[in-house]
Design a protein that fits this description.
This protein has about 325 residues and is of the alpha/beta class. Helix content is about 55%, strand content about 10%. The protein contains 16 helices and seven strands. The longest helix is centred in the middle third of the chain and has 22 residues.
């Protein structure tokens, strides 16, 4: 049973032990439910993130005739970012109520122990945390901010080159990957070469792309200060520089990016102060996807949640034969 607990497929385990796979699956389910903790221990930093699970399923309501969701394609996971518990639980559905219900199932002492909650820029998670964990500090994962900045730059590039986008020989299209790289991770001569390439483009194309690239780099410079524990004045100056770049550019994409940063600034500032990220949740999602591929998909969401908890809960991983 240890092999099953470590993530091997039920089919392969059945072959190894010369048993039918339903027998092995039933044995695994019974054993896993016995050894997995019924309730997670208190955590200081909680990570919340969603992951897509296949396609949704619909069933008609016999009374109204309206089709309703029987199986939601989204699962929300709760991860211990401060300890070694790994995946604490998983619920079906990406709604505020689903998050609230899972947190409400924990006792008051458990909820009071949560000091930080790391999320992406999702208003669903934000409203749920504000209702159930009002004392917790919300932290925005900086990875999603970087992703949003790169997406904004890409939107500007595509808009100004829409008539000949994606053709080999168009230099602005060939530079698309270099544009989304962080300048801090590039050699100085490579950054200079990139800016020279942009300046050689027609002004109507090169100028907006250059402005968007600079705005993206200003935001990345602000986020990079988390490693240096910046003071209030340094953060303020870098934030002003980013806002000023977006305002002077008069590009709708940059105005939208600046508005998003302003809306989520308290949560972004919490990241700069704490350095907490949602990398643990992203890593857990990667394991969940691997388990699903190994099993060639799951038809039962309950079985999938059980298997993924066994594979991602550090406390249980490799110790399912302890009892």
């Amino acid at each position: 049973m240890t092999d099953c607990g470590r993530g091997r497929t039920v089919v392969q385990a059945a072959r190894d032990y010369a048993l039918s796979w339903p027998v092995v699956a039933a044995a695994f389910t019974s054993h896993a439910r016995a050894v997995l903790p019924a309730q997670p221990e208190p955590v200081q930093a909680l990570g919340i993130d969603e992951i897509r699970r296949g396609r949704p399923r619909w069933i008609p309501d016999e009374a109204t005739g309206i089709w309703q969701t029987a199986v939601d394609r989204w699962h929300v996971g709760f991860v211990d970012l401060s300890g070694k518990q790994g995946l604490l639980g998983q619920v079906e559905g990406r709604t505020a109520q689903a998050v609230i219900d899972w947190l409400a199932d924990r006792d008051q002492a458990w909820r009071d122990a949560v000091q930080y909650v790391a999320i992406d820029m999702c208003t669903i998670f934000k409203s749920a945390i504000r209702r159930v964990l009002p004392q917790a500090t919300l932290v925005v994962d900086h990875f999603h901010l970087v992703q949003l900045a790169n997406q904004t730059l890409t939107e500007v590039r595509r808009r100004v080159t829409v008539t000949h986008r994606g053709r080999k020989g168009n230099r602005e299209w060939e530079l698309r990957n270099r544009l989304t790289r962080s300048a801090a991770r590039m050699r100085g001569e490579h950054v200079d070469a990139l800016l020279d390439e942009l300046s050689n483009l027609p002004t109507v194309i090169g100028a907006p792309i250059t402005v968007a690239w600079n705005a993206k780099e200003h935001l990345l410079d602000l986020l990079a200060t988390v490693r240096t524990r910046p003071d209030q004045e340094q953060v303020r100056d870098l934030l002003y520089r980013f806002y000023r770049r977006c305002a002077d550019a008069d590009l709708p994409e940059l105005q939208r990016l600046a508005t998003t940063v302003e809306t989520w600034w308290p949560e972004i500032l919490a990241f700069l102060h704490t350095g907490i990220t949602n990398a643990g949740s992203e890593g857990t999602n990667r394991v969940i996807k691997t388990i699903a591929r190994d099993a060639y998909g799951f038809r039962n969401p309950g079985n999938q949640r059980l298997r993924t908890r066994c594979a991602t809960t550090r406390r249980a991983r490799g110790h399912l034969d302890a009892r």
